[in-house]
Amino acid sequence: MTASESPDPAAKSNRTIVHVDMDAFYAAVEELDHPEYRGQPLIIGADPKGGQGRGVVSTCNYIARKFGVHSAQPVSQAYRLCPQGIFIPPAYARYSELSKAIMKILQSFSPTVEQVSIDEAFLDCTGTERLFGQAPELGQRIKDTIRAETGLTASVGIAPNKYIAKVASDLEKPDGLTICAPGREREFLGRLPVERLWGAGKKTVLKLKTCGYWQIGDLAKAELGEVRKALGNHGEHFWRLAKGLDDRPVRTGWRRKSISEETTFEHDVDDNDRLEQVLYKIAETLTRNLRREDARGRTVVLKIRLTGFETFTRSKTVPEPTDETKTIRETALQMFRAFDRRGKAVRLIGIGVSNLLFADDPDPVQKKAARISQMDLFGDLSQSSGQDSGEHSAGHPGDKRDRSERRRDELLDDLKDKFGNHIKRGSLL
Ligand code: DCP
Ligand code: MG
To answer: Which of 192, 224, 245, 321 could join 296 in a cystine, given CB atoms 3.0 to 4.6 angstroms apart?
Structure first.
């Protein structure tokens, strides 16, 4: 039994779950550091190059949103919608610094804080009434403390479970505070559109609407059998959410779920050799980042965006969690070679790795698996004599390759740390 399956006595009863999400986070940090940007449309993302830029928008302030600018939009489009906007590239180190400060503040309200992204976290504040007051007071205190200590505004949702708390924090952005009292879950969700079901993508939403479920309340009233017919295996999950039922505990110790690296080309690229070279480089950077975080992943994802912005992903799960450049590169290349571009050139290409496992994972099952992988690693190093240690081992041939590859990856990481990124894999071979 994994930790997430274990019975949690707090899960079923009246919990006080808080969801905090910072407003226009990257843009708000830039406004904080550069008061001259305030009051104007501010867009964080790749250089728009006077409308010829090829990257995407990370986020924008609420003034820019009025022009129709939003996250993940091509910067060229953002520029067309809002040419008078201020466009600036992201400064991740600063956002990360403030993110840490915010998470620290949240920990002063509860020991159970689950960070889910750079600007977002759940807190289980069950039983803190005597310390911080009832939900409205608690929410206001959290917002005020963040504001006082960082100068930034947060939106807060408070509800008996994670799903409703997350929906609530988004309803009155920016600077919102929205509360759903216990017992009012169905009423709270009832009139919201099915797009608000957590985890429902475009396909699920379309299926729901085709069956006549437009509002969450429509789904809550439906028979489970009907919902299963419409949505298959996921039916029950969404049906329970619609009824306001969500037992998931707040779990401490956030870990990223995936890691990725991508390149947008200045001009769309049609040449397969060039694309493979770029994938080669992306695999290098990505796996180096994986190793830096002591993480390994099982699922390799290839992302391709073609001329015209059509975007595709392909994924493949490898037998063992890995951080090995060669395995990840070859898996991505296989998917790339099998992908039919139908003659279209490539605008963006990237690789992601998900199903991540960390060496110091708190989950006992994962920890065990990670420890086994670590033993592999130490087995390799302890035999180190400047030769390919695989030759001394009694493992199957796959192990041999794995170990020499690992040695090569680590050597290259060290060289890059010392001499910079221009060190190339080829020079080692
Ligand atoms: N982000 C990004 N690319 C995306 C989405 C988000 O780089 N496609 C980054 C920039 C955001 C930050 O993550 O500032 C947090 O994401 P949110 O979805 O919470 O968006 P914001 O905080 O910017 O705005 P909101 O007020 O809607 O939460
Ligand atoms: Mg946010």
So the answer is: 321
The CATH number that domain 25-92 falls under is 3.40.1170.60
pLDDT in tens, 276-330: 999 999 999 999 989 887 889 999 999 999 999 999 999 999 998 999 999 999 9
CATH tag for 258-428 (out of 3.20.20.140, 2.60.120.620, 3.30.1490.100, 3.90.600.10): 3.30.1490.100
Model pTM greater than 0.90? no
Sign of the four-CA dihedral 142, 138, 238, 234: positive
Reported confidence tier of residue 422, pLDDT bands at 50, 70, 90: low
* Through-space distance between the first and last CA atoms of the chain, rounded to whole angstroms: 45
Evaluate whether 29 touches 95 at the Cβ level (below 8 Å). Answer: yes
d(CA 171, CA 156): 9
At the topology level of CATH, where does 187-242 sit? DNA polymerase; domain 1 (1.10.150)
| Of 109-118, 205-214, 313-322, 367-376, minimum mean pLDDT range | 367-376
Residue located nearest, by CA, to atom 24 of ligand 1: 24
Phi, psi of 318 (to 5 degrees): -95, 160
How remote is the CA of residue 200 from the centroid of ligand 2, in Å? 19
Residue 56 per-residue DSSP state: B
Task: Give the residues surrounding ligand 1 with Cβ less than 6 Å away.
Answer: 21-26, 58-59, 71-72, 118-120, 173-174
From 65, 103, 119, give the residue whose CB has the most ligand 1 atoms within 8 Å, as the site to mutate. 119
| Most confident of the ranges 301-310, 379-388, 412-421 | 301-310
More confident residue, 295 or 184: 184
